[in-house]
Amino acid sequence: MLYDSVPKLFAQAAEKLEAEFEKLPKFEIAQDGCATVEAMAKVLAETAHRLGDNYPYFHPLYAGQMMRPPHPIARAAYALAMKINPNNHARDGGRASSVMEIEAVNQIAAIFGWKEHLGHLTSGGTFANLEALWMAGQLRPGERIVGSEQAHYTHQRISGVLKLEYKAIAADGAGRMRLDALEEELRRGGVGTVVATLGTTAMGAVDPLDEILELKKKYGFRVHVDAAYGGYFKLIEKSLEAPARRAYAAIGRADSIVIDPHKHGLQPFGCGCVLFKDPSVGRFYKHDSPYTYFTSNELHLGEISLECSRPGAAAVALWATERLLPPVAGGEFAQGLEKGRRAALDLDRRLRAEARFASLTASAPELDMVVWAVRADSGEEASERAQKVFDASARRGLHLALVQLPGSWFGIPESLEKAESTITCLRSVLMKPEHEAWLNEIWKRLSEACEEVVG
What we know:
40% of the residues lie in helices and 13% in strands. With 455 residues, the chain is α/β, with parallel strands linked by helices. The chain has 2 domains: 95-324, Aspartate Aminotransferase, domain 2, CATH 3.40.640; 332-453, Aspartate Aminotransferase, domain 1. Helix 8 links the parallel strand 4 (191-197) and strand 5 (222-226). The longest helix has 21 residues, at 332-352. It is globular, with a radius of gyration of 24 Å. It starts with a helix and ends with a helix.
């Protein structure tokens, strides 16, 4: 088994790393707190026990949030780098890992067809999007940011932090930004940047980027693509349905892109990436530091990022993973995305054939995420049933997620108190390749839970 081999492989690599520094004089490593091996073993055993109080994110029966285990090579490479504990803010703090970050980011940019670009890793999608919107404010000061009402909530929050006006644009029944609503906002003037989401957090919807870019020709705004969740699906765009396929085909024409390797990229959490198509935007990051950068005249990552200290270990883990599983169309990595996508389509097909469930009326899943409601005579009852199915599934070891979406998207009668009410729906994120093989078991447990609740 691959996982069983990791400790041995790590030990061999650790010996190799020790040999790289064998010419250094020997010294006694200070033992902080004078901890004994027995004391460490006790603490680690307690730590392992405490970590057991988690959902089994690594297992195929966990199909709720955007959670999957990092690849063994990423875990081992990260741990190996911690021997050095590099800081990728400057070449001084992370000489090798800085170069590895540049190479890893170049490979991500190549997914979108970019050879010339400016980019780096971040602590995650939130900070990556913050940098993208900060840059939007630098390039188009005083102008508004707009994004779909289904875009991640951090865009509105980030805009507030940056003192930029933000406007949410209505979405259609498939969760995509409505072009008519967008153009209505554009006619008002003053829009500097449109945020297009490729893979919304709630349901994996893909905004019509190709058509948004056509509007750009008329109105002259910038386009930022938040592909934190869905960016890697560019590798399998040919297997997507036509609207999503057209959007991914156009992604290289955007001004900036965010992607999270800690989602589909098999990395530990704390690994996002921001890319700018025009390298000259690096001028906005320029700063003077009197104390940090004296040993190298080469461009360092601290000169093109807002974050200062950043873990070089994250770059090492990503670099190693890309060496083992290159993110290229048709490769083993891309095949894993295909499996998750097929699992989502299979689950959606089964849900549509089950009278007790209500699926999206506008479209099938665009990526590997499925949302559905429990059929009822009212939105309130549908929400109650969804919560009960969620709980009943968990009792059977199947872990789903809950999400609030308009009931009208599922043909559920709206609340009499609200013109556009939302209901509680069920969501499944089938991002593990193993989900395809486990779909029958997932369906069995879901059906049993529904039988318990609805009958």
